[in-house]
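Sequence only, no structure available. Ideas?
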Amino acid sequence: INIYLSGTAEMALEIFDLFLNSDNNAETGFLSWQWPAGSGAEFLFEGNPSDGYIYKHTDPNHGWGWEQSSSFAAACKFSAIKTAGMGKAIEFSIDKTKLGSVGSHISFAITELNSSWSAIGSLPAKEEPASAFLTVKL
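Reply:
I predicted one. Tokens follow.
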């Protein structure tokens, strides 16, 4: 799975959380209050492009429950963050074999955090009644 992420000139990805719904079912996995109109994450990618981990959702009640399943080093490849127009961009790939069975679509949301773990940006917008993961056809 290849992802191109563009952001503002301040984008640094000191820490990010990428929630990934691999079965394209918003009723399974982690149901986040931040995206109340649809989430269902089976995986959480957390860290920065140099160091991070992938966690598989484990809570049968759809709450916050995760078990480490892989490292970024074993499952992802990241480019350097580069200047792109008036902002910055990064490309990265995720090895689908690390995600088990993946449907014809995935959905996701990403939050950028600073080194103090404070959220500084999100794609898509979160904490609004219509906030939901973005869906992409594979």
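The longest strand covers residues 105-113.
Hope that gets you unstuck.
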